[in-house]
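Appendix C: a fully annotated inverse folding record. The material below is reproduced so that readers can follow the format used throughout the book. The structure is listed first as tokens, followed by the designed sequence.
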């Protein structure tokens, strides 16, 4: 098992890619913190992970809120005594060109998609240092690298996540902390495709959508 005994936080773990990651981590022996702003979703995924034999807790956390994020790290350390892996996955998208995008909606999205990654990393890294190192995985998006129509704020936020990933990786390599980003596209069960019957009309080469495991 590749994550035997590792303490892993997954933000946005209550749904979609975060939930699929939590269940895979559980199979790989991780001890899990499923963090989500939706408490019921986090509880359900923690329970599913426990049924797979993992030690798992659920935390209600808004990743845009510094005090809540700090508490998330404290509760993780109280429960498990260490932190090995942080998956910064919480995020969402809105539609609109720059002209059409409401300024408050832009700020709200940046607060989750970018500030959330910053805050969770800011409070996780000292705990990882004390654990002797760790791994941060940020869920960016293919839109960090290629254009997609009608998603100006979302594209900007994921570009920022990609740049922040590189900055964290360089700053903390000496702490034994690795930081990488993944760039999904067209995963079913996520916001991007809920209202669509076929893969998004971006310049992606993907010919099919990724699908998380069915709910147990
Ligand atoms: N699904 C895709 O095709 C796709 C493609 C590229 C990137 N992504 C990225 O993957 C990540 C997960 O997307 P998904 O499709 O699984 O979406 P999803 O909506 O199924 O899951 C996102 C989860 O994040 C939680 N969340 C939202 N705001 C939060 C906050 N402020 N604090 C804590 N939790 C919060 C939601 O409650 C939800 O459970 C996102 O960052 C998204 O941008 C998804």
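Designed amino acids, in order:
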């Amino acid at each position: 098992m590749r994550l035997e005994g590792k303490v892993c936080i997954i933000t946005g773990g209550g749904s979609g890619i975060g939930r699929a990651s939590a269940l895979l981590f559980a199979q790989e022996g991780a001890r899990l913190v499923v963090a989500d702003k939706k408490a019921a979703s986090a509880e359900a995924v923690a329970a599913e992970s426990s049924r797979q034999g993992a030690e798992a807790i659920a935390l209600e956390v808004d990743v845009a809120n510094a005090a809540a994020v700090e508490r998330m790290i404290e509760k993780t350390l109280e429960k498990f005594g260490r932190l090995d892996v942080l998956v910064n996955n919480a995020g969402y998208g809105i539609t609109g060109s720059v002209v059409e995008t409401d300024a408050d909606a832009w700020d709200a999205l940046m607060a989750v998609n970018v500030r959330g990654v910053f805050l969770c990393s800011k409070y996780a890294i000292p705990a990882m240092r004390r654990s002797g190192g760790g791994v941060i995985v940020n869920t960016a998006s293919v839109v960090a690298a290629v254009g997609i129509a009608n998603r100006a704020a979302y594209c900007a936020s994921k570009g920022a996540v990609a740049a922040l990933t590189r900055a964290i990786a360089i700053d903390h390599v000496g702490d034994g902390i690795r930081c990488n980003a993944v760039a999904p596209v067209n995963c079913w069960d996520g916001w991007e495709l809920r209202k669509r019957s076929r893969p998004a009309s971006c310049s992606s080469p993907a010919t099919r959508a990724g699908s998380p495991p069915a709910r147990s």
